[in-house]
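Margin note from the TA: students keep mixing up input and output lines. Inputs are the sequences; the output is the structure of the whole complex. Example:
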Amino acid sequence: MSDVRLENVVKRFGEHAALDDISLTIKDQEFFVLLGPTGAGKTTTLRVIAGLEKHEAGHVYLDGALMDGTQPADRDVAFVFQQYSLYPSMSVYDNMAFPLRSPLRRIPEDEIKRRIATAAEKLRITHLLERKTARLSGGEMQRVSIGRAIVRAPRVFLMDEPLSNLDAKLRESLRVELKHLQKTQGSTTLFVTHDQIEALTMADRIAVLDDGRIVQVGTPFDIYDRPATTFVAQLVGAPRINLVVAARTSADGGGWRTRDGSLIFAGHSDGSPLPPEVTVGIRPEDIRLGEGAFLGDLILVEPLGVETILHFKVGGDTLLCIVPGVARYKVGERIAFGLAVERLHYFDLDGRRV
Amino acid sequence: MANIELKQVEKKFGETFAVKPLDMSVQSGEFIVFLGPSGCGKTTTLRMISGLEAVTDGAILLDGRDVTWLHPSERDIAFVFQFFALYSHMSARENIAFPLQAAGLKRDQIRQQVAQVATMLRIDHLLDRRPGSLSGGDQQRIALARALVRRPAAFLMDEPLGALDAEFRESMRAEIKRLHIDQGATTVYVTHDQIEAMAMGDRIVIMSAAVVQQIGTPAEVYYDPANLFVARFIGSPGMNLLDGVYKAGAVHLPGGGAYTVPDDWRRVLDAPGALPADNAIVLGFRPEAVRVTRPGNDSPGELGAAVYADDLHGGYSMLHLQLADGVIVHGRAAREARHAIHSVLRFDLDPTLVRFFNPQTERAIGRDS
């Protein structure tokens, strides 16, 4: 059993509150992702859990035990960084064995050998064990870094953007492997990233951070389908969600219209109330081309192969829409479209979901 | 507007080829993207077109005029680099006006053209600022404005978005393409980002190891890659590629199981010489070709696999399937379809989306060859 609990944690750097009253529970065996822009407080949260950073208020618990005064070395957590910190002159094997050979641990060599063999197989680096780390590719080095964390069998893995220095293709495949590994090992993992696709694809649950505060915690489906704020809505999904401002035109319930009336929204299907002015979020895949009540002028076509992104001018707004495969439309065409009304998102003018 | 023609253009550094003899023509008004990993020769090609790099052999024609040995300034082309080389002591306006002043234009002509390009790029409000006080994206807009204001016959752009963050790159990508649609200037654009290349290019020139691998529209390079390199490089993830042996109308996979080749392909593969002597073959298919069969509802599904991972990508899910020999296949799935890790399932392939490759030559096997 390994769970992590943060209770009202505050961390200040000078006047600035890097973490402003953070409370979180990461469950045993959970893959938990902290997602947010640079400066949101993601890395600081990890460092506070690891004990590398001292918080001013609140409490950190590991497995129910209070860690506030505990030294980093005694917390039994493993950190994997963005920059692989391997010893270049040592072999992969010796790099992985290093933390286990610490005099504090006194693990026998044959046990070390067994652990490394198991981890290496899972990470597909068995063939690299005798190689010097200086001669590895970036992807291989990051696998070794992860392997070095795995052999320790720590209570919790703390990973700080471990994939962001790798090229796109490698990132993609390592993402899948890391998720598979975490699920088969059942290791409690806290993973920090600013990359929404890493968060959506790997997490059991995601906490979205902004400016030292938690904006929303939920499963990838929760975050994508029911974003709590426009900030969260814009953070996940590529291309980004379309946001348009609409206002109630008459008191008798004529719906919410964009300024020039090009788009009209009926509001929630169950009739639950909305403020007179709203921001409406429309995911690009929720625009249905070909038929519908609205008209858009196609201004740009971006064929990506598996799908095509279409940019429309609809009155004063530009909407991005995504369709599978090759689109047969041409720039300059006027195209009718409809909206998947049950999938629209409504926010008040402060950006809160309503 | 200009067309650009490369005739047997090559570049050697010492004995090594940076670019092997290359033939291609860029139509007037076309947006051409050179795509490839670093060191593939794409930037060298661009620099030869600009005149910043001398060719080792071959000829470069601009509108039929041989410019191979002309100085860069005599070629009437504008270059946009990744690193916005703006003059830090000048305002944005002065930076943009600089090439016009150098060309000796009159003051009110300059003012008018700067205003026009600034409106187009929505940077009017930034004109009096110094580059150092602007964000990376705004600096790149100024650099773009400075290139555009010259109205050259052709634009050459070397990873102009490479230094920007992901979100900004996407919006700038759309802006550059919009500008191209409005202005219609011939553009040659270099990137290592296949998504950028697909989104922007009328045609894409894919290079690897100093050699052009394929020239085609985004749809051509995606659906009909010329070889294994292109199949892997284009798409995220790239094409699924399974090694197998072709025998009696089916591709037999090393871990057991076989894929029955569609009839129209069978004729092609049965033709003498289509495959190496040992009948080794590579079966290729894009993630969207994978159709997981539902027990009871559909045909049993030809191929079997265990779920390796299953993840949400927003509007869709990606299913990662491990075959008996350990190879992982990526399949697109409806977002609602969830599968537990290690669960066993069967799948078919959309017959219109399968492709075949000769593992010896690494080349695609053409349906009409």
